[in-house]
Specification:
The complex is a heterodimer of chains A (about 400) and B (about 90).
Chain A (H helix, E strand, L loop, with lengths): L1 H10 L1 E7 L3 H10 L4 E8 L2 E7 H4 L3 H7 L2 E8 L1 H9 L2 H18 L1 E2 L1 E5 L3 H14 L5 E2 H6 L1 H11 L3 E9 L2 E8 L10 E5 L3 E10 L1 E2 L6 E2 L4 E4 L1 E5 L6 E5 L3 E17 L1 E7 L4 E8 L2 E6 L9 E11 L8 E17 L2 H16 L5 E13 L2 E13 L1 E5 L15
Parallel strand pairs in A: 6-9
Antiparallel strand pairs in A: 1-3, 1-4, 2-3, 5-7, 8-9, 10-14, 10-25, 11-13, 11-17, 12-14, 15-16, 17-24, 18-22, 19-20, 19-22, 21-22, 23-24
Chain B lengths: L6 H10 L3 H4 L4 E5 L3 E5 L1 E7 L3 E6 L3 E14 L3 E14 L3
Antiparallel strand pairs in B: 1-2, 2-6, 3-4, 4-5, 5-6
Classes of the chains: A alpha+beta (about 400), B mainly beta (about 90).
Chain lengths: ~400, ~90
Amino acid sequence: MWFDRMLSFFTGYVEIIIRGAQLEKLINLLTGSGFYLWDVKKITPQVMTAKLRSHGFLKIRPFVKKSGTLVKIRRRKGWPYLRRKITQRKVFWLSAVGMLGLLLYLSSLTLVIKVDGFTGGEREELIKTLNYVGLKPGKPTKELAREKRRIERDAIIRTPEAVWLGINFKGVVAEVKAVKRKNPPPPNQGCDLIAERDGLITRVAVIRGQPVVKEGDTVARGDLLISGRMSYTDPETGVVIIENIPASGIVEARVWYDLEVLQPKKIWRASCLNKPKKVYSISWAGRTWRIWGKVERSEGELVWDRYRKRLFFGRNPNRVVELIKDVWQEVRWRKVTLSMDEIKLAARREAEAKEKYLIGLVAGVPEEIWIDEGDYIKLIKTFEVTQDIAMLAPTERRTNDRSDPGEKN
Amino acid sequence: MKFKPNRLGMKLAEFLELPLDTVVELPKIIVSGNQQLVIENHRGIIEYEPSVIRVGTKLGELKITGSELALISVLKEQLIITGKIGQIEMVDWR
């Protein structure tokens, strides 16, 4: 019945009013001749409404005459009439297409950033950091998904309160899940803060303990910065009491990082001999079937590139269906001596790629040193970074205590 | 009109355990609660009023009484009636 109704909608149908004394006779004549009638309702003893397909209505005249009734169309319905009606409304169509386009465009953007794990001011701060590193409402989801790892890494570097951070894109919502760092309670035993790296002290903020260094001092790795050994004289007995406490504070210093890049003077460069040959194949569960193209492996020196397109993901990651495109390019390898400019450009490019992994605030322009090492050119870039260099160390392990020179450990 | 039973057809249907309505075209009546009634192998509508519908079949007349009765689908072989069905009566069945 539903199939008939749907077919009627697509072919078009009419709602008719039948008037006369022999209404049942007309129904029997029509159904007996293969017409399909539905929603037959009697309104008064001599008036009835029914629905009939449009092409059927054109053929009912002899049956109407035979039954002595009068038939009139009340309403035309179905897709052909609807189409005719709506094609005349150009503004409606334009706005519908515009609306659909707008909807599609908006659905491709990330409009909401939802943060889980952080609350209050910390949450606001994290959202600000996310905006700074590139995750902000109104950006295309596809672009953000491509940079997901970079955003996660940059955000976690800039958010010391978070120990882990993950981003998931669900429709127009970017779900950020962050796990808060739980600082361990201060240890009962005494400990000092020592220098993690060589550097020039720029700021000392002591929370607990006795500062040993001051701004402007130069320290080496392992030097004591804030001592956890406190000594005071008992006013009643006059005895010097030494107490070990866990030292705490921030010691910022200018430190220098050397970034080394080695670039060869001569490299092997491939020159393409003819057009690349493409081989398409389909893979499933580790098995591959070739569907198009062929390459003779013994043709010469070949360079091979493989591109994969996942057709079906499924639940099992080992059983995905992939379309594989192999591109084989016949080449001739030549040893090329690079010019100094080319070497420098390549070395700088490699150094720039490594620079982003430097932690801390890079200050000023890095210093560049070029060293010729025979077949290679070495670039040493020295970055000046301001960072907290304080590191916890148990008091017992300290050997060169400068806090109290008279005391032996 | 006198009903002539197809004896061979009936015997064959009985032997092969086939439904009778498919072999000898006997009327098949399906009632769903008191809401819907499907009549297959009918021979036309004799009378239609919102309170009563009379349908002709090979064996006789089928009278359906109730309220708000409507013919939601009328085909040569099948008839679907909806509404509040009160009574189904087989008039002059052979």
